[in-house]
Each structure stands twice: as structure tokens, then as C-alpha cells.
Amino acid sequence: MRRPTFDLDVLRTFVTGVEFNSFAKAADRLGRSTSAVSAQLKKLEEQVGTPVLAKSGRGLVLTPTGETLLSHARRLLELNDGIFQTLYESQTAGTIRLGLQEDFGEHFLSDILRRFVQAYPRVNLEVRIARNAELLARVESADLDLALTWDTGHLSPYATRLGEAQMHWIGARDTPLPTDLHRSPLPLILFDSPCVMRSAATQALDAAQIPWRIALTSPSVGGIWAAVAAGLGLTLRTRIGLPGHLAVVSGLPPVPSLCYVLHSGGDAPTAATQQLAVLIKTSLQEQAFRFSMT
């Protein structure tokens, strides 16, 4: 005798309907029409060979056969879901090497780490905070699986532009600009070259014929913020991570926005790496409105 094979989707509909005490609610929960659910229940009773539900007033109750089926169906679904969970977790384990440009590292690292570790506790994250050039080199040499950088015009083979942030002139609060910008060089606080924001700042000032000088160079964003707060000069950055004691300065030449880019270390990222990339994109999208403020 050929034994029939139960359809797990049908069993899931049956169990869900019993748990909700309503097959209409089960249909809504499972994204099916009520007619499709009715057809599944009919198919189930045909396989069992006897009714599993009986009318009771305006509702339905389990028959003795239905009660037996419910117990076995739950175990089958638990086994099925457990297999998929085990397989999924095995694909979202291992180590991911993530690189972040310092702006993103200071601003997003704690949020990204917290959310990712909660969702994927079996994955180890190795994070490197560095400047664009180093991160790009490490992605291209396969020393990083993912890197979030500014768009400097050089994209790795597997790069995706995620959005853009407006650059701004930034200075200490309540520190006025010189009345005559053309009289004495404007003091600037910037990274060493190569730096896309340094280039944008000097090019904008040169185009407006405003003299400038480098008052301080810093290897870190934190050093730039500290020097600006001390009144040593102005800088050009985005609003990402802008400290509350600093402010956007008006009256200087306009500057463009800057794209931020997610680089992948290859064309076949692991499942865990793909999930981290999705989380980074989501985190950026949640705060993108602040980056683009003019």
C-alpha cells in the first residue's frame, strides 16, 4: 500500500487555524485566501480519510482524529523548522572582517555591533577603523569582507553607492568669520593628503580666490573636532558625528555632497556577510535625512 505524504504547508495551515481558533485569521496570517485554506483542509481530510474538524454551533472543533493529527503535526513542523534553523545558523557563522572610515566608525559602530551581535551571536566581527585609501587596499587584497568608505572616485570591483551626505564648513560656536576673507589666509584643520574633503575645501577656496593656510593636520576625526573647538581654525566635514559644541559656518564658498560607498571583498559573500551589509544599509537609511541636510 502506497502511503500518502503529508504536505507541510497544509499541516501548518491546520495547526495555525486551530491555534487562532479561526481559519479566517489563519488565512490572513499565512497570506492565503480563505478559499485556498478551505481547499487545503479538504485535501488534508482526503489524505487522512476521515474528518479532522466538526461543526459546533457557529464554530469548528477537533474530532478525535483531528486531536491526534494536531499533536503529530506540531512535532513535524517543529522538526522541519528546526532543520531550517540549524542550516541557516550554520550559514551565518564564522568571522566577518569589516572596515569603516572613521566618520562611520565613531558614529555607527556601537549601533551596528549591537544589532548584528544580537541577531547573529555565532558570527565574530573583526572591525578596522581606518582612512579610505587603506580600506580600499584591504578590500582589493581580500583582507576585508566589507568596507564602508567615502567615494573618492576610485571604486573597488564590488562597490555600491548607498547615498550621499552634504559637506559643510564647520567651526566653533559663536566664533565669527573674519570680516574680510581676502585679507589674511583662512586657517584650516584637515587630514593629510590624500583626503577628498581636504581637496574639496582647498578647491572651493581657490575658486573663490580666498587665501588659506593649514593650521593643523590630524590623523583622526577626534583630533580635528578638538582643534576646531579650540578655535584654531575651520574644517570641512559632513554632519556625521558633528559634536554639539561645533556648528555649521555660513558665508563661505558652497561645497558639494559626498557619496558613501559599501565595498564587498568579492562576488560571492557569505550569508552572514550579506546580512551585515543589509544591516549597514538599513542603519544608513534610518539616518540619511540628517546627512543630506543643507
Write up what this structure looks like.
By secondary structure, the chain is α/β, with parallel strands linked by helices. It folds into three domains: 8-90, Arc Repressor Mutant, subunit A, CATH 1.10.10.10; 95-164 and 259-291, D-Maltodextrin-Binding Protein, domain 2 (3-Layer(aba) Sandwich), CATH 3.40.190; 165-258, Periplasmic binding protein-like II (D-Maltodextrin-Binding Protein, domain 2). The chain is built from nine helices and eleven strands. The protein has helices at residues 8-20, 23-30, 34-48, 64-91, 102-119, 132-140, 196-207, 221-229, 271-291, and strands at 53-56, 59-62, 94-101, 123-130, 146-150, 159-172, 186-190, 212-217, 235-238, 246-248, 257-264. The strands form three sheets. Strands 3, 4, 5, 6, 9, 10 and 11 form a seven-stranded mixed β-sheet that branches. The termini are far apart.
Mean pLDDT: 87
The profile of the biggest β sheet is: 7 strands, mixed
Percent helix among the residues? 40-55%
CATH class of the largest domain: Alpha Beta
- The number of helical runs is 9
Q: Any idea of the CATH topology of the largest domain?
A: D-Maltodextrin-Binding Protein, domain 2
Enumerate the spans where pLDDT stays under 50 for 5 or more consecutive residues. Answer: none
What is the total tally of β strands?
A: 11
Q: From the coordinates shown, what is the CATH architecture of the largest domain?
A: 3-Layer(aba) Sandwich
Quick one: CATH superfamily of the largest domain? Periplasmic binding protein-like II
Computed over alpha carbons, the radius of gyration is 30 Å
Multimeric organization:
single chain
> How many domains comprise the coordinates?
3
**Which overall shape is indicated by the principal axes computed on the Cα atoms?**
elongated
Q: Strand portion, in percent? A: 15-25%
End-to-end gap: 75 Å
